[in-house]
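Progress against Task 2.4 (sequence-to-structure conversion) is shown through the following example record, which the project officer requested during the mid-term review.
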Amino acid sequence: MDSAEAVRVNRTFHDHECAYYDERFAIVHDARAAGQASAEVEGLLGRRLRAGEVVLDPGCGTGWQAAGLRRAAAGVRVVGADLAAGMLGRARAAGAWPLLQADAGALPLAGGSVDLVVTRGLLHHLPDVAAALAEWRRVLRPDGAVVVVAEPTPAAERHAAVLVRLLLALLRRPLTAEEDFWEVASMAANLHVFTPDQLGRLAGRAGFAEVSVGTRGFLDTLVLTASYVTHGRRRRLARRIPWRALEAAGRRVDALAADRLLPPRLRHTVVGVFRVTRRDATRSET
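Structure tokens generated for the chain above:
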């Protein structure tokens, strides 16, 4: 599909998905989640968020980062943006503010107006990843950075496909025509998987002077895949399973074992930090 069609698919699907996104992905907007969001960003960034900083979440979804960072980091202004009006409504209810309805690759923001861009599971939905990274580079101030989390790897796609086939065989409930349509739309909305090298090269071409990219995660993504599929087939059963606790346990096991012992190519998500140095920013302006 071309870029315009990909944008329409993602807007339409996410306006629909907002109604069940949090339940199927075991998201709760509370103090613990806020602490997790800030720890995730600060751990990759290598420093604490600072009062007075402007943080942009250009694909905020239901607000896990935008509302969480606003709650956890005192004095930080977190701006959430999303293509889908439905997602913005959920983010507002979760406590995210201010919010913009905007394409992540064409932001209504002045150049050099943002200190930090944080993005979680967004880039794989964007038709032109390089253009989006260049746009984020444009709005960043000198010494700014982009923190990227949870972009799927080829291994995640392969392993999730095996798990999904197993779950479908066990759950065995045929979908209605409407349900089937939205399941197909969910697959169409996922446009990319990334290796660290691929994403790193894209960041370099977008003008980031310092690029650090790696992989993490294994069990936590499988738990969330199982939650998503089970909610779609057996909602009453899914609601009896403690997905949030299972996902948290998966993250702990990943941190203690999978992230240390599994080869990087077998891990499930790409994470990284793309920095703009003051010297690089000055050079791009001349």
